[in-house]
Amino acid sequence: MMETLEPLLVEHPFLKGLDQKHIQLITGCASNVRFDSGQIIFREGEEADQFYIIRQGKVALQIYTPGRGSIIIDTLTDGEVLGWSWLIPPYQWRFDAVATELTRAIALDGKCLRNKCEADHDLGYELLKRFSSIVESRLESTRIRLLDIYDSNGNG
Amino acid sequence: MTATETDRTAVMNTFSDMMPEFFRIVRTQKNTHDTFTIELEPPSKIFSFEPGQFNMLYHFGEVPISICGDPADRGKLVHTIRAVGTVTRALQKLKKGDAIGIRGPFGTHWPVNESFGSDIMIIAGGIGLPPLRPSIYHILANREKYGKVVLLYGTRTPEDILYRKELELWRSRFDMEVHITVDRASSDWKGNVGVVTTLIPRSHFDPLNTVAMLVGPEIMMRFTVQELQKRGVAAENIYISMERNMKCGVGFCGHCQCGPTFICKDGPVYPYPAIKDVFVKREI
Amino acid sequence: MKTNEQTQPVVIDGKNFDALFRALSKRGYDIIGPTVQEGAIVYDSISDGSALPSGWTDEQEAGKYRLVNKKDKALFGFSSSPQSWKKFIHPPALKLWESKRNGNRITISAGPAAQQKFAFVGVRACDLSAIGVLDKVFVNSPFTDAGYQSRRSDILIIAINCTKSGGTCFCASMNAGPEVSAGYDIVLTEVITKDRHYFLAAGGTKPGVEIIKDIPHAEADVYEIEVAAELVAKTAGEMKRKVDTNNIREILFRNSENNRWNETAKRCLTCANCTMVCPTCFCTTIEDFTDLTGKEASRVRKWDSCFTMDFTYIHGGSIRSSVYSRYRQWLTHKFAAWQDQFETYGCVGCGRCITWCPVGIDITEEIQAIRNTDKDNPSITSTKENR
User: Fold this and answer.
1) Mind listing the domains of chain A with CATH numbers?
2) What confidence tens digit (pLDDT) does each residue in C20-55 have?
3) Which of B18, B247, B283 faces C320 most closely, judged by CB atoms?
4) Does C233 touch chain B (CB under 8 A)?
5) Taking a C-beta distance cutoff of 8 angstroms, is the pair C160, C52 a contact?
6) pLDDT tens digits along B118-130
7) Is residue B153 in a domain?
8) What is the enclosing helix (H) or strand (E) of B261?
9) N or C: which end of chain B has fewer CB within 10 A?
10) Under a CB-based contact definition with an 8 Å cutoff, are residues C241 and C31 in contact?
11) Is this structure's pTM higher than 0.90?
């Protein structure tokens, strides 16, 4: 199963530029997963053991607020990376993730990768570089939405 | 004068270009909690305009509002308005049969007839969709003249989405790509959540042969221009629509100046290089 | 602007100057000229020479204006007045239209059209240049203010060369004076010596030449012409202020973040005096009026100023809300953006803004300060900082 995933992973922009050794390390932690529409992928507070590269589909990041129900604060789709809490202590999900349609993804064993990164700092650095870039773009998108520019009294 | 400027030599008899003509409302429609659409009948039965132009609407006070109807349908004038101030809130209360004063059309227009053969990216933020709708109508009516056509639309929440039925219609076409996103949503929303620029990587267009038309809050336009340029769209192929305080609409009151340009007559539609220098300056 | 033909100048004796007014009245002109009112020179309706400010001169400096009576015979011995001729061709308040609603029917009618046929007596070169600037603003592309055009078209202009510089004048460096060069029907130069008081006069158009014929005059001799010319030339040299307009457009556009604006913002009260006295400022606002029944409405156009807090109000806030941005807008518009818009400067060097600023901000000093701190100036030896 893992051997057939390598060609997929190698093509993915997230893993581009990694050397063969590292790709193999990562592939060793990878598996194919599928979520049905409405299926909960992970819940806030659960242990963050994995992250996902979405191949096809849509995932909503939600947060539950009493009285308002769950609010979707981000959606991710084809090609996007879901989850970085596995990298940062206390390794706990901060939000809920729900598949809003049939979604296929590659799941990567975060716990396993964490150990591999501790052993091989080069691998650790490469992954952190890539994750920083993802976090940066999500943060930018969040900050702009914080301005509420579409509000009628907003600075539009 | 660039190719997109409306060629208009109107003589402003201080009394005629500043005098509204009264149009009767034939239909009103509520779009969202604060946005509504009115359809007006021109007293002379015909009202022509180019996509991107605006009118000054008079109802005991005057406001500039983009024209958002079909330019091929000259028998009616359509405006989608957000109720944010005294005049727009008063307009919101009007009904079929009431009259509104109209002056216009004013301003420059989208380069719809200068973009044949190109892919078209139409990117709207919030109340920016109405000023782009005439372009969409025109492009779809002449569909074979263009390459790929993509509409990206971002707004606050699913409840703020304008023209839902039309969006669904356009999305169901095989020759048009439509992506919508909101800043946040309740959990029953099945669409995208995130800023409108996140839709750009998912769109299919050739950056080297694309004309982009953008309307939205300035922050949104600023980030969207950057994202498009990052992907290789040339600055001169990006068009934005600017907005400023207007009192006359004909370049004499001075209020709409943004640096050396008068938004009412040199704009509101600009190719990005023409407005870039002032666009990046603060409090200009 | 009228194009002028060169005609032979004549000499009108001071005691015959009144004949000018008779010649103008005969032709049905509403004569506007300088008068003394409330301690200042005010352009107003006058019927004869006795209303002119005989013997009056002014002392002007930044934030200061005083009239002083020299008790000589000079009729035009003063410099710029608080108001310019702008208020006659671009009225401070103008009713644009009125409308009435009768049931379902709405009728709308234009406001009053320009009625008067003006003759302006004593238009200085700076003010004449300013009228030319307003012509470019309102007779434009793609729109023309026809109301302005009709008010402007029949005005007879009797211009006067300056023979002394005002305290705040700098028209010479703006190429807008002190010598009147174009756009006049008659141009005068007042000469007062120990023994004589005369006006050198030249017609610039047919109507101007015809009016001069109605005034007792003599051919001007070479000496009389020379004396007048020397007075005007010396006036240019007397000016205490100047603006270096070399490259001013580029310099102002690239110095939008210059620290000088911060300094000036600490002083500027945004009182808008400068825009009110400026002969070229043209911004207006629209006020719509309705009566309580909603049956009658009207629209009035009024002078406005870019210094006001809500001039740029949109979407719950003003684009230019800081004093910094508003002062910068005014100065940059006058000397840089105006060139893009109308192919001329927006400033004629009349000095009014300097005189009438309550805190004495001097536009010529501001421009020089920006020039001095222009980081992109190759002649300023300083290391190029990262912006």
Assistant:
1) 32-142 (2.60.120.10)
2) 999 999 999 999 999 999 999 999 999 999 999 999
3) B283
4) no
5) no
6) 999 999 999 999 9
7) yes
8) strand B261-262
9) N
10) no
11) yes
